Request: fold
Amino acid sequence: MPLDLITGLMGFAAATLFTPGPNNLMLVASGANFGLRRSMPHLSGVALGFPVMIVPVGLGVMRAFEAWPPLYTVLKAAALVYMIYLAWKIATAGEIRARDAEAKPLTFAQAAAFQWVNPKGWSMALGAITLYAPSRDLSGVLLISAVFLTVGTVSALTWTSFGTGIRRWLANPVRLKWFNWTMAALLLTAMAPVLLGL
Reply:
């Protein structure tokens, strides 16, 4: 891949990974509610799960959507149900101190699996492959995956650290309640353009 295309790919990855979306909003909420150390499995699942997903999407799964477009509607419906569930979990999380002992953030496997029902992630993967590896050759798909792994790790760490940074401010139960409900609403709002096909 020529250097100018790699530069464009890195810009595409940064623009899509650093903007608010379901992964980033959940990482902020996890950092705020559980701290950076306890959120590391969640962070790692996002940072690694999406680049891993790119490979089978680029090498074959993308063809399934082209052959049977209603499959994307099924994905969006499943994603909406799961997003509502996650938003409810975030909105109804209790106080930080009361929750520290028993509550848990998403595990590595849960965060990695979430990539498969995240319509924004699918749009990002399909867009990157269409623009930067239209022939869907293995080397091109692997390069896209590597760029998203690198940029995505920085993005996930940044968003989780932001959540961790406001953790002390959220020790006030009223502030935490408003924060969690706001994050839940933003999570659902972030899904609206993709789910509505806008």
Summary: Residues 169 and 175 are 8 Å apart (CA to CA). The radius of gyration is 17 Å. The mean pLDDT is 85. Residues 22-67 form the longest helix (46 residues).
